[in-house]
Amino acid sequence: MNKLLFLLLLPTFSFAQIDSTDIIVRQMMEKQKIVGLSLAVIKNGQPVVNKGYGLANVELNVPVTSETVIRLGSVSKQFFTTAIMKLVQDGKLSIEDSMHKFFPDAPETWRPITIKNLMSHTSGLQREGPAYNNFKIQPDIDIIKSAYSQPLRFKTGEKYEYCNLGYFMLAEIISQVSGMAWHQYIHEQLFLPAGMANTYITDFQLIIPNRAVGYVHKNNNLVNATPMYAIRPSGGFLSTTSDMIKWEKVIREGKIILKKDNWEKLWQPYIKMSDKTDSKDYTCFGWEMYDYKGHKLIVHDGANVGFRSIFSRYVNDGLSIIILANTDEAVPEDIANSLADYYFRNN
Q1: DSSP E strand boundaries for the chain
Q2: How does DSSP classify residue 327?
Q3: Does the pLDDT at position 16 exceed 80?
Q4: pTM above 0.70, yes or no
């Protein structure tokens, strides 16, 4: 009888949880002036929320859904580090390989830089390649070579400093070693096995069903965000929360694409992100690690013009939160943390 009563009450608990999630999300959307947002919450391997809020296109009054395609920004970086680990697993390269193996004409000062330095933002390279231009489509190698004349910012491996240029180099390495364009390799080796049919390269010219428009506020007026024509590997993909739930499942189970120990190498702490002695913030490979109120958090956020995102994994709590937003002013980290606080209280 008690078991029957529990089963009868279970839907009520679930609805209450979703209602509370809605309240938190809508309040924070209003505060942050977010036009549209897609949210996925996965608890102990089960999606408990996967839905949209607000609008994907204001002019056409199109709502955001779980199938709305939104820019991931630097959440994409984990796909590049996973692809690198796949090539390592297949015996095609080592994360200890020097840059000169792939860029033989690079400056001598770059010789100490290894693949793992690029993956962990410890190379000492400038944050951006000088030739990068949001409004110009050009080969990755041209952007990389434009940095050859730039001095290193610090001795390789000495510390952490965020570096998008390093991910252009990882993309070029993937292309060289695999013999195919980096986005094709990632599509075939990662997205297809994961069942991610609605994850795409950020090509502005492609016709992509359900693609969201990006927005920004200027002088308190909502306007269309300036389009980014360039395709930058450091933030190279668009996706949906439904696809990202599939990706989360692949990561959590560790059964396909990579062997479990290779998956785990991606989020092992590599170097502290701060020089404070009591800091527990570490860079990993395409991920970052934090202590959030006593909860181990593996996370990465993303930002492109008009878009903000976050993929938070509270690994010891069996909780993952994915937020994709189409507004420049959005702060998904704050929303994810507020939702995590709620779910921790209601375990």
Answers
A1: 36-43, 46-57, 62-63, 70-71, 200-201, 215-218, 221-224, 237-239, 271-272, 282-283, 288-292, 295-304, 307-314, 319-325
A2: B
A3: no
A4: yes
